Amino acid sequence: MDDLDAVPWFPPAQREHDIEDEYLVGHVRDVTRGALALADSLAATRDADVDRDLVVAAALVHDVSKLYEFDGHAETPIGDLLGHPYYGVHAVATAGLPAAYAHVVLSHTDRTPVDPAFLEAEIVKRADEAAAAAIRAEAVDDLRDV
Ligand SMILES: [Fe+2]
Q: What's the 26 CA to ligand 1 centre distance in angstroms?
């Protein structure tokens, strides 16, 4: 990886919606900020027992597999053969992080059949969906005033 800032957000969706300048680092920051805001809101209003360290760290690594799935905007053999986000589970486990982090990576996307098993995983999944929707919203017609 020569330049982390040059890694695209998600090339297939970027091609589909003709989104040129969207990058993984910005997306991960959006997800982490959104997840933390949601965690803090739930902790304040519902007295939810949320592990903020798990939310932040898991949000930061939720898309780590994209570093292996794509070379620029082209899919790599890892992306072609494994798809998102399975290699991320391997990367997180290889780094020695607890299984809970790998679970967040695995359950954050509907491209696996694994649902979030605890609140922190659900929070990261929802923050990721909202962040991705915000990117897509810039590329499609605004239907709010139809
Ligand atoms: Fe993501």
A: 10
| Protein residues placing their CB within 5 Å of the ion ligand 1 | 63, 128
- Per residue in 68-112, pLDDT (tens digit) is 999 999 999 999 999 999 999 999 999 999 999 999 999 999 999
- Domains in the chain: boundaries: 4-137
CA of 143 to the centre of ligand 1 (A): 24
Q: Model-level pTM greater than 0.90? A: yes
CATH for the stretch 4-137: 1.10.3210.10
State which H helix or E strand residue 45 sits in.
helix 24-46
Crossing angle, helix 52-61 and helix 119-137, to 10 degrees?
40
14 CA from centroid of ligand 1 (Å):
13
